[in-house]
Design a protein that fits this description.
The chain is mostly helical and 162 residues long. Helix content is 31%, strand content 7%. The strands form 2 sheets. It has a two-stranded antiparallel sheet. Strands 3-4 form a two-stranded antiparallel ribbon.
């Protein structure tokens, strides 16, 4: 919040319009491969690194379609209240058991807590009743009646990153 306030002052009072074009939510720390290796040795977690994007996307898509949960870790950490793709838990929102699996086994929190699914902006209206983009997952949108996404649902709607 303080950073945004400082940038707003710079924009409005000092005419530094170009600076705002460079602002992103990825202001957090970045982890080196050696740090990742050390953390995984301590935790016993398994992971894979990919050089080819197509190979990565294919592997993750297959895991998700099989009901697996994937920890996604890349680049700098997000700044703000939501994981926006650099430190995220990916799971299939079409499976009923996803909500309990992620909440109870992975996040170790109440089983009823909802999720914020990521959707391509151009396909948002297929899944949600929303008319505006929500790139930082700050809007709540009702799920459209024509699709069934049981994992992220909560009575008053869900947050969606578009």
């Amino acid at each position: 919040g303080a950073l945004v306030a400082a940038l707003a002052v710079q924009y409005h009072y000092f005419e530094e319009k170009e600076t705002l074009k460079e602002v992103s939510n990825y202001l957090g720390s970045e982890t080196s491969n050696s740090q990742i290796d050390a953390l995984n040795q301590v935790s016993g977690a398994s992971y894979e690194q990919f050089e080819e994007t197509d190979e990565l996307v294919e592997k993750v898509a297959k895991l998700l379609s099989d009901g697996q949960v994937v920890g996604w870790f890349q680049g700098r950490m997000e700044f703000g209240p939501r994981a926006l793709g650099n430190r995220s838990i990916l799971a299939n929102p079409t499976l009923q058991e996803t909500q309990q699996k992620v909440n109870l086994k992975i996040k170790k929190r109440e089983s009823f807590r909802p999720f914020a699914p990521v959707v391509l902006e151009e396909r948002a209206s297929e899944y949600f009743d929303i008319q505006t983009p929500s790139p930082h997952m700050l809007l709540v949108a009702p799920i459209a009646k024509k699709h069934h996404l049981p994992a992220p649902i909560k009575a008053e709607g869900i947050q969606a990153k578009l």
